[in-house]
Design goal:
Elements: E1 6-10, E2 13-17, H1 23-69, E3 82-83, E4 88-90, E5 94-96, E6 98-99, E7 106-110, E8 121-122, E9 127-129, E10 133-140, E11 150-156, E12 167-169, E13 172-173, E14 178-183, E15 187-188, E16 197-202, E17 206-208, E18 211-214, E19 219-228, E20 238-248, E21 251-262, H2 267-274, E22 292-293, E23 298-303, E24 307-308
Parallel strand pairs: 4-11, 12-17
Antiparallel strand pairs: 1-2, 3-6, 5-9, 7-8, 7-10, 10-11, 13-24, 14-16, 14-23, 15-22, 16-19, 17-18, 19-20, 20-21, 21-23
Length: about 325
């Protein structure tokens, strides 16, 4: 008996029939398999869509939590400060004025790379730019949240770093005496946690007469009191640390000081996207920048109690 292998076209499918197999039966089986495969693919697609929807809901909830944490939607914001001189090269002695469009706003600023807070210098008049300067400013008006940070960098030809002089004493380090420290390592808000230590070093010698009692380079420990990673709605990461004392040569000198570092915010980008059709709420997932403390950043602290010094160190 002669056997043949047949190929039958059925519903657009090319069905290969086995020896002695009825072509119609083979075609029906092939159609059933194709339908089952299509149903399985549809089921997988539905599961993927459900997971994507769940992830989006979680992201939106996190975004709303971040917005609530920063009062993004509940309290109007003070408008950003404005600088009278644009960033770039300027002549030594240039006067910089800072203004704010919001009435009755108080402006605070820094010139050392740290993020300004209400504990920073208050703007009361023109600032003289006589060396390379990086200035940041915020404004706060009654019943409003603080403004976004305004930043500007100025370069002065022939600029030299500010000289750091020794601290001369009569044997007692007096209350209120400023000490200049500098950060010795990097810290990032992505990984930092409250309670972590930040190492700084003393940037000037402390003298009794002409004797060095606390040498430049002495290690000082600071403690992180605030550490937040960047969040949704453009919320930036931030780091805050405090310095409480300096221990050297059997002496413990009580200190007060600390700084704040905030990452780059993306509030404007986020709310700009909210106005774009289709993008909408998805814009709330936009992250701010993490805060990073770099080595070599200056930190000024002050002595909080008169402290007798023993001239036991070498010259």
């Amino acid at each position: 008996m002669r056997r043949t292998l047949g190929i039958v076209l059925f519903g657009g499918l090319a069905v290969v029939c086995g020896f002695g197999q009825d072509p119609t039966t083979a075609a029906m089986q092939a159609t059933q398999q194709a339908n089952e495969a299509a149903m399985q693919a549809n089921q997988q697609a539905m599961q993927a869509m459900q997971q994507a929807s769940t992830d989006a809901m979680r992201a939106n909830q996190q975004a709303m939590d971040d917005a609530q944490r920063t009062n993004t939607f509940s309290v109007p914001m003070t408008r950003q400060p404005r600088f009278s001189v644009d960033s770039g090269h300027v002549s030594g002695g240039t006067l910089l004025r800072i203004t704010c469009p919001t009435h009755y706003a108080v402006i605070y600023y820094t010139t050392d790379g740290w993020t300004p807070t209400t504990a920073s210098a208050r703007y009361t008049g023109p600032i003289v730019i006589d060396r390379d300067t990086s200035i940041q400013a915020i404004a706060i008006a009654p019943d409003l949240t603080k403004s976004l940070i305004s930043r500007a960098d100025y370069q002065v030809a022939g600029s030299k770093p500010e000289a750091v002089l020794p601290v001369a004493t009569d044997g007692v380090l007096r209350i209120g005496t400023p000490l200049r420290l500098v950060t010795a390592g990097a810290v990032d808000s992505k990984t930092a946690q409250v309670g972590d230590k930040l190492t700084l070093t003393l940037e000037q010698n402390v003298l009794v007469g002409d004797h060095i009692v606390i040498p430049r380079g002495t290690t000082v420990e600071a403690t992180l009191t605030h550490a937040d990673r960047a969040g949704h709605v453009g919320v930036p990461g931030d780091l805050v640390f405090e310095v409480h004392d300096l221990v050297a040569n059997g002496l413990t000198i009580p200190l007060r000081g600390g700084e704040t570092m905030e990452g780059v915010n993306h509030y404007k980008k986020t709310f700009g996207l909210l106005m774009v059709p289709v993008v909408g709420v998805a814009a709330l997932a936009t992250h701010g920048g993490d805060a990073t403390i770099q080595p070599g950043m200056p930190v000024t602290v002050s002595v909080t109690a008169d402290t007798p010094l023993a001239p036991t160190a070498s010259r």
